Amino acid sequence: MYTEVENYNLVAKLGNLKTIVLLLKAINFKENATCFGTENGLKVTVEDAKCMQASAYIPAHVFQVFNLKEDVIFRVNLNILVECLCMFWSNINCQGSSVALQLFYEGNGHPVTVLIEEDGIITDCSLKTQEPDELLDFHLEPENVLNKVVLQTELLKDILSELDSTSDFIELFLSPAPPFFRISTTGLAGICHIELPHDGELVDNFQCTSTAMSSYKLSHIKPAMKALSCANKVSLRTDTCGLLCFQYMVKTDEGHTCYIEYYISPVIDPNG
After folding, report:
1. What's the number of domains the chain is made of?
2. For this UniProt entry, which residues form the secretion signal (predicted)?
3. Which of 83, 100, 128 is the last residue of a domain?
4. N or C: which end of the chain has fewer CB within 10 A?
């Protein structure tokens, strides 16, 4: 589409627009996102108030073309990008319809150009880029991970749909002894405890080394649930500081695997 591709630091092509739309919609809870292009692929990160962070990962091998001269980092308006891509959402889901995407980025100060091709018709979107804000380095050191639970997403969907929406906080209890896995809320309906089966058929893995209980803002948990609609499995991990990580595995139509990660900081004193 663009002939002088050698002028660009990043040139990427996806044969199917559906994957990137699902991933970006799942983390679209703030206006702006920081994009990282490395030899591993593309990462799009959104952060809120330095206490929660979400990233969508598209590995390089998922792209039909992924040419990178050097690592790139830039910030874009995620609301506008998602809005542009969603113009083709109904077409993406039509049988036999082919919607491809190409992305071009020249470097600092230049816009990101997104070309969307549908049955030979090309739509050209140019998005302004900004200097990225410094992001917190959210991560879980393996030696600090206390608990890890891998679930089929349908189980977590059912549980979270039952949560009391009038509660400000959600308490997560994980233990190697009964009740093993419990989610609690306190709202207008009073205290509600939901116990999850730690060895049911929808639980793929339950690793719990010690009893841990942490509270999180429900308003931070809710955005993390957006990814449930497009994921196959979700891994839930907590560390010694109470940092919570949801990692979602998202299968593409072509059989590739992409990931979405949400990090949520605990509330130190929910009663304070």
Report:
1. 2
2. none
3. 128
4. C
Structural domain contains residue 165: yes
CA distance 57 to 227: 13
What 3-state class would DSSP assign to 1? Answer: coil
Domain boundary among the residues 93, 128, 163 is at 128
Does residue 134 belong to any structural domain of this protein? no
For 230, phi then psi, to 5°, come to -115, 0
Q: What is the pLDDT along the chain (272 residues), one digit of tens a residue?
A: 444 667 899 999 998 888 889 999 999 999 999 999 999 999 999 999 888 999 999 999 999 999 999 999 999 999 999 998 888 766 665 555 578 889 999 999 899 999 988 877 888 989 999 888 887 788 888 888 889 999 888 888 888 777 888 899 999 999 999 999 999 999 888 898 988 888 888 889 999 988 999 999 999 998 888 888 889 899 999 998 899 999 999 998 888 899 999 999 999 765 55
Residue 155 within any structural domain of the chain: yes
Question: Which residue in 32, 111, 108, 101 sits closest to 73, CA to CA?
Answer: 108
What is the strand order of the sheet 212-217 is part of? 190-195, 181-187, 169-174, 212-217
Instruction: Give the type of residue at 161.
Output: S
Q: How many CB atoms lie within 10 A of CB 263?
A: 23
Rounded Cα distance between 267 and 269, Å, is 6
Q: Domain residues for 71?
A: 8-128
| Assigned domain for 198 exists | yes
Q: Is the separation of the CB atoms in 187 and 166 below 8 Å?
A: yes
For 71, the 3-state DSSP assignment is: coil
DSSP secondary structure letters along 222-264: HHHGGGGGT-SEEEEEEETT--EEEEEEEE-TTS-EEEEEEEE
> pTM for the complete prediction?
0.90
